[in-house]
Amino acid sequence: MAISTTPGTNWGTWINLEGSFVDVPSAVLNADNRVSVFVQGGSNTLWSRYEQRDRAWAGWMQHPGSRVAGAPNAIRGKDGKIRVFYRTPDNHIEVITQNAINGGFGAPVDLISNVGGDPAAALNADGRIQVFFRGSDDALWYIHNQGLLYEQYTPPASLGGAIYATPSPALDGSGRIVVAVKGGSDTLYTIQQKSWNSADAWEAFSSETTGVTSRPTVTLDASAHVQIFYRGSDGAAWRVGQRSDYDSFETSVSLRGQILGEPTAFLGQDGRVHAFVKGANEKALWVAVQQTENQPTYFDFQNLGGVIGDVHPQAVIANSENLLYVFVQGSGTPKSLWLLRQVWA
C-alpha cells in the first residue's frame, strides 16, 4: 500500500547532508522561504546548512564564537530575521541573530545565566519572541522581547512548577501561547496565557494525563488547535488535542506503534497532521497521518525507511509549498544529517 501523504505528492529519496552532530536539529524558513537547519556539531559549535533556490544545499557553515551544549532552537521573528537560541556548556542561554533579512549572522549574545535545560521559543500574537527553559531550580522560566524591540529581552521570570524535559510552546488560534511540559510522576502539564498577547499573565498549570515517558512536543492542526504528542509508558505514541474552546484538552488517545524518543509532528499540505517517530525495532522513520482534517483518528504508522542514529527526535518543517521536510541523524560513526522530503508526484 502506498504511504499516506498529501494527494499529488510522494515521499522522495533520502538525501545525505553529511556533517556530524550530537543533538536534535532545528529547522526554520528564511524570509525568502529557503529551508535552513541548525545543529550542534563538533567541539560544541553551532553549524548550519540552507537549501538554495534550485533545491540543492549550500555547504556547512560554522557560526564563530558559538558554544553549544544541547539542542539549538531556531525561529524567525516578525521582522523577518532568524534567531537561534541555545544552551552553552556553562549553562547560559545565548542567541545569534541574522544581521539582515535572509543574510548572515552576528556574534553570539548572552541572555541568561544558570539555566537547567535547553531553550524553546514561540511567537506571541504581536510577534514578540518568548523563550522558555527549565531553570536550575527545575521550574519553568521564560524571557521575551521588550515590546517590539527585538534585540532587547526582559529579565528571566518564573512560572513555577517542576519540569523534567525541554518545554514545548505553541501559539494557538486564540492568540495565546500554550506550553506543554513533562512534570513529576510522568505527568503531562500545560500552562496557557490568560489572554491574547498577555506575555506575563498566565493561568495555573493544568494536569492533562499521566504515563508520559518522553518530552511532549506540540504542533497546530488545521484549525490552529494545539496537538501534543508523547511516548507513553507502554512504548506507543500518544496524542492529546486541544478542545474547540482553546481552554482545555481532550482525553489522550494512542497512535499505537512502538517508538524510541519523542514523536514530532507537523501540518501537511492537505490540512492533516503528520506524526513522525523512530521505530523501536527497525530504527527507521515512521509516519502516522490524520485520517481526516481536525479529527482525532490516525492511520496506522507506515515505514518511511532509513536507519536513525542515537538522536531520536527528528526536526520537521514545511517549505513554501507546504511540502514536509524531515531531518534525522543517520546511524554509524559519521552521525550525518539526513533529509527525507515530500516531492510532487
Automatic annotation (TrEMBL):
InterPro entries: PLL-like_beta-prop. Residues 6-204 form the PLL-like beta propeller domain. It comes from Candidatus Protofrankia datiscae. Pfam families: DUF8189. The lineage of its organism: Bacteria, Bacillati, Actinomycetota, Actinomycetes, Frankiales. This is PLL-like beta propeller domain-containing protein.
